[in-house]
UniProtKB/TrEMBL annotation:
Residues 3-163 form the EngA-type G domain. GTPase that plays an essential role in the late steps of ribosome biogenesis. It comes from Sphingomonas lacunae. The chain holds residues 6 to 168 of 568 of the full protein. Associates with the 50S ribosomal subunit. This is GTPase Der. Belongs to the TRAFAC class TrmE-Era-EngA-EngB-Septin-like GTPase superfamily. EngA (Der) GTPase family. GTP 1 binds at residues 9-16, 56-60, 119-122. The lineage of its organism: Bacteria, Pseudomonadati, Pseudomonadota, Alphaproteobacteria, Sphingomonadales.
Length: 163
């Protein structure tokens, strides 16, 4: 059985883009509209010699913590619970939002190791967002560009102990 890596985070942070990069096929639907990935998608991911099952979770309907549907919390927590490691994505260009902070609170008590990833950090434009991600209280974040393939070695280093 392959180890399981799950990707979580609010809509539009680049979860499906990262999933597609790791799986190497356009299996997950990528769209500019928030929350467009309706279903959980799974595939076999590869990264610099690592091999694992990868799960792309659906986003939330609305980017407002007051209206986060409870089932989305339940779905995220269930997906994280069955994983060997969770990649928690934020958007480095936007920084930490209230929804990111809310998700971090759900994840903080999890027994599953959580890796904070500040995506969309290509060309150092997201450096402030990467620093801000420390405030989530889930350990040291690193910058990634799922779209442009930057930060892949850092992603390898973060996953390696868990897969
Ligand atoms: P999801 O809702 O979290 O699954 O996010 P998507 O993967 O659908 O991506 C949302 C938007 O962000 C799309 O327009 C992507 O092209 C864009 N995106 C994803 N990754 C990156 C990245 O590394 N850099 C930049 N600049 N845009 C990205
Ligand atoms: Mg998606």
């Amino acid at each position: 059985d392959l180890p399981v890596v799950v990707i979580v985070g609010r809509p539009n942070v680049g979860k499906s883009t990262l999933f597609n990069r790791l799986v190497g096929k356009k299996l997950a639907l990528v769209d500019d509209r928030p929350g467009v990935t309706r279903d959980r998608r799974e595939g076999v991911g590869h990264l610099l010699g690592l091999q694992f099952r990868i799960v792309d979770t659906a986003g939330f309907e609305e980017d407002d913590p007051a209206s986060l549907p409870g089932r989305m919390r339940a779905q995220t927590e269930a997906a994280v619970h069955m994983a060997d490691v969770a990649l928690f994505l934020i958007d480095a260009r936007v920084g930490v939002t209230p929804v990111d902070a809310e998700i971090a609170r759900w994840l903080r008590d999890s027994d599953t190791p959580i890796v904070v990833v500040a995506n969309k950090a290509e060309g150092k434009v997201g450096a402030a967002g990467v620093s801000e991600a420390y405030s989530l209280g889930l350990g040291e974040p690193f910058g990634l560009s799922a779209e442009h393939g930057e930060g892949i070695v850092d992603l390898f280093d973060a996953l390696r102990p868990h897969v």
